Amino acid sequence: MVTTLIDQADVREQHLRQTKLFVPDLVFFEPQALDYPLGEELFRRYKREGIPIKMTTSHNQVRGIPGETDLEKYRNAKRTLVVGVRKTLTFEQSKPSAEYAIPLATGCAGHCHYCYLNTNVGTKPYIRVYVNIEEILERVAQYIREREPEITRFEAACTSDPVGIEHITGNLKRAIEFMADQPNGRLRFVTKFHHVDPLLDARHNKHTRFRFSVNADYVIKHFEPGTSSFRERLEAAGKVAAAGYPLGFIIAPLYWFDGWEEGYTHLLETLDRQLGPEARQDLTFELIQHRFTKIAKSLILERYPKTKLRMEESERKIKWGKYGKAKYVYPDVQAFALKSHLEAEIQRFFPEARIEYFT
């Protein structure tokens, strides 16, 4: 478990960075959402709480998000919730993390400058939750049966941070308990939020790997506003390990900054000091270097005009994605340096852990 010994600097950090649960300023409902119990429940909840409600024929037709400039509209959209029905039940692949991405929600309340959701959600950065969870889970069961007797893994955080909105729908807990009964099914998700308490009593049968996204202090300070502090994430990881979940950490994006070697060593030293034996029993790491596309760069600079994120194409190497899109990653020499340093330090501090991949 995570130690409770926190020095005064950490206490001040907690006070300043304490992340509140997401509460929307505006909620849109698709009419079909009201045909489901969860949709009815959410409609009554937000009406009772006095949060403005509007109807929309579909999420693509959302209109009326306030703001005089595109930047204002973007920031207000991040405070907007769309409650709808997931109609497309053909799941995307999610390599190398899992075989499939399970669509529980889309969008995130965080403001990470580098996030690929800047591209994926494009001009629709609002948060969408789906109320037809039973239909989604039925499709999960079909995918599992199609690949039996192999294990089929599902990633629940490809298009959102499901922990940050779990208090709205409870869909993540439903998915965890559903997967507990699947001998050949496994669930995975990653979060930057510490709001894990609703998931601690879930019946998981160790079929769900609970991962936390962590990074060097420099990256969290400059590029991850609107998320839980590193200290909050560590404390949440301790709770998760105590609840018996297999634990993992994604160090992403691995970012080249002045002092990056010391920064990432300090990160792993801190993890080593804080994680107890139960957290190390089945511990994994995933390493993902920083990358961007030209579209992402344009959107990031528009939405976070004062960002310190370096995105110079001339300093990068082109890597072609699965849909033929060009991504800019670090040149081989820098990528190898990042990979070698992180792998060596993980081995030094956590020799029992498994590094699942570097990409």
The general outline is globular
Mean pLDDT rating: 92
Q: Helix tally?
A: 13
Helix proportion of residues, in percent?
A: 25-40%
Structural class: alpha/beta
Taking the sheet with the most strands, its summary is:
8 strands, mixed
Radius of gyration: 20 Å
Poorly predicted tracts of residues: 1-17
Distance between the termini: 29 Å
CATH topology term: pyruvate-formate lyase- activating enzyme
In the CATH classification, which architecture applies? Alpha-Beta Horseshoe
SSE series:
HEHEHEEEEHEHEHHEEHHEHHEHEEHE
How much of the sequence lies in strands comes to 15-25%
Number of strands: 15
Looking at how many chains there are and whether they match, the oligomeric state comes to: single chain
Structure, described:
With 359 residues, the protein is of the alpha/beta class. The chain has a single domain (86-358), classed as pyruvate-formate lyase- activating enzyme (Alpha-Beta Horseshoe). The chain is 36% helix and 19% strand. It has helices at residues 8-17, 37-48, 70-77, 117-120, 133-147, 166-169, 171-180, 217-223, 230-242, 260-274, 277-280, 294-303, 332-349, and strands spanning 26-29, 53-55, 80-84, 93-94, 98-101, 105-106, 127-130, 152-155, 185-191, 208-214, 247-254, 283-289, 317-320, 326-329, 354-358. The strands form three sheets. It has an eight-stranded mixed sheet with strand order 4-5-8-9-10-11-12-15, covered by helices on one side. Strands 2-1-3-7-6 form a five-stranded mixed sheet, covered by helices on one side. Strands 13-14 form a two-stranded antiparallel sheet. The chain is globular. The protein starts with 7 loop residues before the first helix and ends with a strand.
